[in-house]
Specification:
Blueprint lengths: L5 H7 L9 E6 L6 E3 L12 E5 L2 E3 L8 E2 L1 H11 L11 E6 H9 L9 E4 L8 H14 L2 E5 L16 E6 L17 E4 L3 H19 L6 H4 L2 H11 L25 H9 L7 E5 L17 E9 L5 E10 L3 E8 L12 E6 L5 E5 L6 E9 L2 E9 L13 E9 L3
Length: about 425
């Protein structure tokens, strides 16, 4: 737990256990009906679970709607095990058989009470129709869906959907990006031998952030939105040796944003939501920095906001941060592929220093995540800009005039 920040977070706040969070664990059955968690394996009471499959549903174990899966037990131990899990205090777990879950929940857009879905499985190949179904579900209900990217070769469905969190295995056997259509996946990694067991670490971390986000008062709805949770998870990640990216490929093809560290993510969450100091428009190209303006007090933080653009006019939301320390800048921008949309709005992220010199940019034309990492910063005033690129209706990169996004940043890591 040390490497993913759980030990440090527990020391900071031992009440963070995932309390009050309802989750779903979806399992592929290697044999008919073999998908269930034995509650004794994670050390949880039978009352924590409801089991779902085509034959029916049950709140008992054992039962007649399925049978125990050793794989499911190991996933449960990492996710919410009493002594071994990231979020042992979950309120409830819906344990689903995979094919039933996809047809009964995802395809029908069934609004579950669960807010975190763990999917330690792959469908076996890239499938655009299935990815679209997951993207639609997440866009509609703002659920955090963490899926393993696969254990070698290409990133597989559903981990290669736009709106979910694709999880790789750090130090283990893991698929690598980009996706079949050139996007960056995985989004993040966690230490495990295979992705089945790195994914529940990320799901557990998401549950901790959601529990913490519900304490945000008037900003709680924004704090627990899947875009905010995803941005915080990625922004808190630690860069391993060999990590790299570019302005057009925001995440590393092996590691995504890096190695999960929920302590870093929670500290950023805890600094609170801070909106842009200005929202301006500019011409169809360029991204001029704001010359003067107020300064955001916090060097770590997050926002959930909307941005607008028009035909021939791009929207620019400005965030100004003053820091007295030194370190690296990490910033992550996340937005969704919209419900029943075939493309995404094109957003970009830029970072300037106090002299209006461009430090870094993330401007992928195909991803709905932008990520900036700059080392060696000194004390001073900096500016982040979120830009919604000006396009015309019907042109790639323009789906709607308005887009909601989540932004997380840390200027003193």
């Amino acid at each position: 737990m040390d490497i993913i920040g759980v030990t440090a977070l527990t020391a900071l706040d031992p009440t963070l256990t995932g309390s009050g969070v309802v989750a779903t664990q979806v399992e592929a059955a290697p044999a008919v009906g073999q998908y269930e968690v034995d509650p004794g394996s994670p050390g949880q009471p039978v009352s924590l679970f409801t089991y779902w499959s085509a034959p029916g549903t049950s709140g008992a174990f054992p039962n007649t709607v399925g049978s125990e899966s050793g794989h499911a037990d190991q996933v449960a131990e990492a996710f919410y095990g009493e002594n071994t899990g990231v979020s042992p205090g979950l309120q409830h777990v819906g344990n689903y058989e995979m094919t039933f879950f996809y047809s009964r929940v995802i395809q029908t857009l069934d609004p579950l009470t669960a807010i975190v879905f763990n999917q330690s499985f792959e469908f076996g190949s890239h499938n655009t129709i299935q990815d679209q179904a997951y993207d639609d579900y997440i866009a509609q209900w703002h659920t955090v869906v963490a899926s393993g990217v696969g254990n070698g070769g290409a990133v597989l469905t559903p981990a290669d959907c736009y709106n979910g969190v694709g999880v790789g295995a750090y130090g283990g056997t893991s698929s690598v990006g980009p996706t079949a259509d050139g996007r960056c996946k995985p989004d993040i990694t966690a230490p495990a031998g295979v992705t089945s067991f790195s994914t529940p670490l990320v799901s557990g971390a998401a549950a901790l952030l959601i529990q913490g986000g519900r304490r945000m008062g008037v900003d709680a709805t924004a704090a627990i939105d899947s875009r905010t949770v995803k941005a915080l998870l990625l922004n808190g990640a630690v860069k391993p040796s060999g990590w790299t990216h570019s302005s057009t490929a925001p995440l590393d093809p092996n590691f995504g944003a890096g190695i999960l560290n929920v302590f870093n993510s929670y500290v950023e969450l805890g600094e609170g939501r801070v909106g842009p100091v200005a929202m301006t428009f500019s011409g169809p190209t360029g991204h001029p920095a704001l010359a003067r303006g107020p300064v955001i007090a916090t060097v770590k933080g997050w926002d959930f906001h909307s941005i607008r653009s028009g035909t021939g006019t791009q929207g620019v939301n400005h965030y100004r941060i003053a820091t007295s320390g030194t370190g690296a800048l990490i910033a992550t921008l996340v937005w969704n592929k919209g419900y029943q949309k075939t493309g995404i709005n094109r957003l970009a992220l830029y970072a300037y220093d106090g002299s209006r010199h461009l430090l870094a940019s993330s401007a992928s034309r195909v991803d709905n995540v932008q990520h900036i990492y700059v080392t060696g910063l000194g004390a001073g005033t900096y500016e982040l800009e979120v830009v919604k690129v000006a396009e015309s209706p019907g042109v790639a990169g323009f789906v709607s005039r308005r887009e909601d996004y989540a932004l997380a940043w840390d200027f003193e890591r």
